[in-house]
Amino acid sequence: MSTHVSVALTALLMLPVLSAGCSPSASPTAPAVSVVEIDIDVSPNVLNIASQGEVVTVHTDLPFGQVTGSSVSLNGVTISSWKADDRGQFVAKFLMTAVKDIPLTIGAFNRITLEGKTIDERPFRGTQDILVVNNAAGA
After folding, report:
1. Residue 16: what pLDDT?
2. Which residue of 12, 51, 117, 127 has the smallest Cβ count within 10 Å?
3. Residue 54 is part of a domain; what is its CATH number?
4. In a domain, 78, yes or no
5. Does the pLDDT at position 116 exceed 90?
6. Where does the chain have alpha helices with state H?
7. Is residue 96 situated within a structural domain?
8. Which domain does 124 fall in, by range?
9. Ramachandran category for residue 21: left, alpha or beta (phi over 0 → left; psi -120 to 50 → alpha)
10. What CA–CA distances, in Å, run from 70 to 36, 67, 95, 111, 116?
C-alpha cells in the first residue's frame, strides 16, 4: 500500500473521532444513561421485625420479559426469586431475614429502593416508604 493511501485511510478513520470533538488519542466516553423511575408496591407494607414471614415481595410496573432478574436488588439485598404476575409484570422476592438485616428504624417509615437493569442494560429504580415495627406476638 502506498504511503499516500495509508495516510488518507488513517485520516478517514480518524474523522468520526475528530468530528465528535475528541483528540485522536482520547477515547470517546459513553453518553450518560438515565435511570428509569418505576412504580413499586412492597408487600408487606408494614414490616414487623418480630414476624415469622419468609419473603418480602415487590410488584413493579415493568413487563416481566424486559427485566434482567439477576440484576435486581432491594436496598442492596440480592434478589431471591422472580416471576411474572397475572398482568405479566415483573415481581421480585427477597428473603425476609435478609431484608430485616438492612439498617432500619423501628417505629418509623423507611425508604425501600428496588434497583436493577432491563435486558437492554437500562438501569431502573423504584422507591416506597414502609413502616417498620417490632410487635412480638402477645405483647
Report:
1. 43
2. 12
3. 2.60.40.10
4. yes
5. yes
6. 3-19, 96-100
7. yes
8. 36-133
9. left
10. 18, 9, 14, 22, 8
pLDDT of res. 32: 75
DSSP E strands, the chain: 36-37, 40-43, 46-48, 55-63, 67-74, 77-78, 81-84, 89-95, 108-118, 123-133
Q: Are 123 and 130 in contact, with CB atoms under 8 Å apart?
A: no
Per-residue model confidence (pLDDT) at position 7? 38
Domain count, the chain: 1
Joined together, the cell numbers standing for residue 28 give 470517546
Distance (Å, rounded) from C-alpha 105 to C-alpha 97? 16
pLDDT tens across 30-83, in order?
A: 667 799 999 999 999 999 999 999 999 999 999 999 999 999 999 999 999 999
User: Would 11 be classed as within a structural domain?
Assistant: no
User: CB within 8 A of 75, min separation 6: which ones?
Assistant: 99, 102, 112, 113
> Given CA atoms 121, 34, 59, 95 in this order, what sign does their dihedral have?
positive
What is the value of pTM for the model shown? 0.75
Place of cell 407494607: 45
- Asked whether 89 and 61 are in contact (CB, 8 A), the reply is yes
Give me the pLDDT at residue 5, please: 39
Q: Is there a domain that residue 31 lies in?
A: no
